[in-house]
Design goal:
The chain has 342 residues and is α+β, with helices and mostly antiparallel strands. The protein has 12 helices and 11 strands. The strands form 3 sheets. Strands 1, 2, 3, 4, 8 and 10 form a 6-stranded mixed sheet that branches. Strands 6-5-7 form a 3-stranded antiparallel sheet. Strands 9-11 form a two-stranded antiparallel ribbon. A hairpin with a 6-residue loop joins β1 and β2. The longest helix has 24 residues. It is elongated, with a radius of gyration of 25 Å.
């Protein structure tokens, strides 16, 4: 029996003493459980790099600890990795080839259909339309789908057994993160990490605030002009965790370890850029919407979720082609995953 989209919680405990945190609990959402194996679906640029980096992260172990706290025994976690297509949505460009019967090469190629038709009549030839680029969104989706299917490793399974040593390390990691947050709050001191300013291949959304503070200026006007306050800093949990304690998730703990200041702006101040301005988040968010429904309801449910995401999340400015590119990728990834795993 497969379970999907299971929200898990547990107290954050000092592994050395068993003492529970009075301020924090851990929460996460597991994509799926089958038997004693956790399923975690991920989109990635490179499955093999993902596997090597995931080996030193603790997300899987934190899921396992939370499930153990809930009385569930887990023996491993299975990553199902879907490679993001490295293709651009190319605008369709048409030309018209004048063809003579029995010949494979064109007599002449023209940009205008009427000119080609006129030339063909004089030569006793026919006109064949040619298209370079993508005729429509479906053509682009098909091209992305074929790209994913072209290499076996672009849809990749990787199973990791549960290790008691790693579970202990994960417990200490979570406890130290909670202590780090409390210490930073107490001293009003959040340490910056300049190496995180270009993390994940793009500029940190809070860089302008940090630069303003470094110059000794007041960032209030930047906050009012460029940011909004999020209702929930853990949208992946869909508001399903009700607690009088603060939540720490794998994502927020990772943000803290990457850069304390980034954690402060995102989780303490709850600041975020308006969604329409986060161009880099489009594919990931559309993919997440699709995956969430794909695991529970199959391909058609994933398509519907992606289409709903598109309708309610307009892309940057009027860049419809960029929007189509990300939606086409997300649909192609769901389609290829359904063919392999459902």
């Amino acid at each position: 029996m497969r379970e999907t989209e299971l929200v898990v919680t547990m107290p954050i405990t000092n592994p050395a003493t068993g003492m529970k945190s009075r301020k924090f609990i851990y929460a996460g959402k597991v994509d799926g459980i089958e038997g004693e194996t956790i399923d975690d679906w991920k989109s990635t640029d490179d499955p093999h790099k993902f596997v090597s980096r995931r080996a030193i992260a603790f997300q899987a172990e934190l899921y396992t600890l939370a499930l153990q706290h809930m009385g569930r025994r887990m023996t491993g976690i299975r990553y199902r990795l879907i490679t993001k297509p490295g293709l651009r949505y190319c605008e369709a460009k048409y030309s018209y080839a004048v063809m003579r019967a029995g010949r494979k090469s064109a007599v002449k190629v023209l940009d205008d259909f009427k000119d080609a038709e006129l030339f063909a009549k004089g030569q006793g030839c026919t006109v064949v339309e040619r298209c370079s680029g993508d005729k429509n969104l479906q053509a682009y989706e098909d091209r992305c789908y074929e790209w994913i299917r072209a290499e076996p490793d672009r849809l990749f399974d990787h199973t990791v057994p549960v290790s008691s040593g790693r579970l202990m390390q994960a417990g200490y990691y979570l406890w130290e993160c909670s202590k780090r947050i409390l210490d930073s709050r107490l001293n009003s001191r959040w340490l910056p990490n300049s190496g995180a300013c270009e993390a994940y291949g793009r500029e940190c959304p809070y860089l302008s605030l940090c630069e303003c503070l470094a110059a000794g200026a007041d960032p209030t006007w930047i906050i009012e002009d460029q940011f909004e306050v999020a209702d929930d800093t853990h949208p992946e949990l869909d508001g399903q965790v009700k607690s009088d304690k603060d939540l720490i998730t794998s994502s927020s703990a990772g943000c803290l370890c990457l850069c304390e200041v980034r954690y402060y702006w995102k989780h303490e101040r709850r600041l975020r850029k308006p969604q329409r301005e986060i161009d880099a988040a489009w594919l990931g968010s559309a993919m997440h919407a699709g995956l969430e429904h794909f695991v529970a309801g199959g391909l058609e449910a994933a398509y519907a979720a992606i289409d709903d995401w598109r309708e309610h999340n307009p892309v940057l400015g009027d860049d419809v082609r960029k929007q189509d590119q990300e939606i086409g990728k997300a649909r192609a990834m769901m389609r290829a995953a359904a063919e392999k795993w459902l």
